[in-house]
Amino acid sequence: MIAINNLSVEFSARPLFTDVSFVINPTDKIALVGKNGAGKSTMLKILAGIQSPTGGSVSKPANVTVGYLPQQMKLADDTTILEEAKKAFRQRLALEEELACLNENLAERSDYESDSYHKLLERIEFLNERISMDDTPSVEAEIERTLVGLGFIRNDLNRPTSEFSGGWRMRVELAKILLQRPDVLLLDEPTNHLDIESIQWLEQFMLTKSKAVVLVSHDKAFLDNVTKRTIEISCGKIYDYKVSYTPFVQLRQERIEQQMRAYENQQKFISDTKDFIERFRYKATKAVQVQSRIKQLEKIVPIEVDEVDNSRLRLRFPPAPRSGDFPLIVENLGKKYGEHQVFSGAEFSLRRGEKVAFVGKNGEGKSTLVKCIMGEIPFDGHLRLGHNVKIGYFAQNQAQMLDETITVFDTIDRVATGDVRNRIRDILGAFMFGGEASEKKVKVLSGGEKTRLAMIKLLLEPVNFLILDEPTNHLDMKTKDILKDAINDFDGTVIVVSHDREFLDGLVEKVYEFGGGKVKENLGGIYDFLRKKKLDNLNELERSTPSLSSLSPQLGNEADNGLHSSEREMSGKNLSYAEQKERDKIIRKAEKAAKEAENRVSELETKISDIEHKLAEGDASPEVLEEYSGLSTLLEESMALWESAQMELDSLKEKFR
């Protein structure tokens, strides 16, 4: 579908990659990987057509569409969330608007035999065909489904985009790209601004609805779940593996070991050849052999070994001063802004040395609770820090707090103590500040570089309670592994606010979930928590899935009258005969609602099938096309209604089991 032929790129006469060739097929799910600076983002820009290569070409058919999400972009602030998302359907909406105008014109005409009347009919027929070819029957329903999947709530959709942070507006841009359903998706770090549930939704979307995908990400779990092919950019070349990320790591290691053996053999041959030349250079009887060996050396192409990390650096936090047995105790804690209750009734305590995660949708209170712990905002209830607690806090905006007038080296030199002072350059090198980069002024660093520098600074401070708010957003995989090892070795208490499952896996032993105004404690690691959620069908979590009441007023009222009022009172108890009857009545109502929704879907599918037969036989009149479009919209809505009714029924059966 897209062919990359002998592509070369140079910056300031330095080659980034040379003679690169590969093909993107219609259903490929590709992870594009490589160290920072290898050229991943540059490759995406070239594929998107917004940057030209130094040499080579990118070939794609004229009808192939491409959607590109960069790491940073200029965001609009003059519309609502819904209006901005509708721009994804600009072409379709323009066709619908033109069709509506032409239909009005048609209703007013009576010159049925004129050429202009027939041309008007032809144009209307053409527009109907174009619109009917679009497989999105209900634009607003599809927009809402996508925005909700990416973490917005319905009340957000009519709010101005200017009220949202940059991260949330990036979600709108991602939604617009997904809604366009391009033939090729090019995504550069799409999960940086998403929470765990939104990432899981995006995974399912990309697996079930997207076509070809080329993805740059530092989220290992995301890459493993989405991609089936890995292209690595290394030493100016590419290596193409028909596997997902984790198997690729193993295959890459085997490749490097083979390269190393070949490199060592080549170096031995070069050394032996040079020794022979030196030994017999001045012997006339060996002149021919010497000249032959010299020519051999000149023809040798040096073998490169791809970016092997020989440092094996392990960072360690300074020994944590001993704190009390319970560094943090929270009792009936709540926080509200005006009329909006972020969360209430939070109750938990952390033991010394515990490592826990705060997870949940953005806006449910994770960072708010962290700010309560730090004493940055007032709150309701009680929160106590234990004896001798010294907090090290990494905020999402930590990079903005650095002194921009000093160098990278001086930033770390001012906080390093003891033996660490002798290893500052090694530490900076591990975080990609080696060589001349350590002498850069902080003010010239990119956002990602400042984040890494702030992380190094925190690593060196003697604390016993770490609070890390989204620490991995701008860290590559190697750096995340170094940080994760350091936290695992840390003997103090840790709270990590993160959406990075791979980072949390094996790091935390308890998960606090924020949602629906509550904070729930879950024992076990992050994957134990995710498995538990899936077993519960996610029905009791504050997922942004359509409720029965929001999809159908009639069905919603029926649900409100019987399904919700008493179900909580009867779950998990020994029921009396009367209670059993009430329970059975509730389940029967839910079964009836699900069955009616299913029957409605079957009825609509039959009607649509009949119309499709008409269309196949050549009957494409405006009336038939209009009926087909209307029924397709109803089917989409009915399918959603049936799905929600069935989920409600499954939930009730689970609760009353």
List the helices and strands and how they pair.
Layout (H helix, E strand, L loop, with lengths): L1 E10 L2 E11 L4 E5 L6 H9 L6 E5 L6 E4 L11 H6 L3 H19 L6 H19 L5 H11 L16 H14 L4 E5 L7 H13 L3 E5 L3 H7 L2 E6 L2 E5 L3 H36 L6 H13 L28 E10 L2 E11 L4 E6 L5 H8 L6 E6 L5 E4 L13 H6 L10 H7 L16 H13 L5 E5 L7 H13 L3 E5 L3 H4 L5 E6 L2 E6 L2 H10 L12 H4 L1 H10 L4 H4 L6 H40 L5 H34 L2
Parallel strand pairs: 3-7, 3-8, 5-6, 6-7, 12-16, 12-17, 14-15, 15-16
Antiparallel strand pairs: 1-2, 1-4, 8-9, 10-11, 10-13, 17-18
Helix pairs in contact: 3-4, 4-22, 5-6, 9-10, 19-21, 21-22
List its traits.
globular; 6-stranded mixed β-sheet; single chain; 657 residues; alpha/beta; 22 helices
Q: Reading side by side through the largest sheet, how are the strands ordered? A: 5-6-7-3-8-9
Counting DSSP E segments of at least 2 residues, the number of strands comes to 18
Radius of gyration computed on alpha carbons: 31 Å
* Overall average residue pLDDT: 80
Helix content: 40-55%
The proportion of strand residues reads 15-25%
Shape: globular
Describe the sheet with the most strands: 6 strands, mixed
Q: For the record, give the distance between the C-alpha atoms at the N and C termini, rounded to a whole number.
A: 52 Å
- Poorly predicted ranges: 535-573
What is the count of DSSP helices, taking H or I runs of 4+ residues?
22
Structural class: alpha/beta
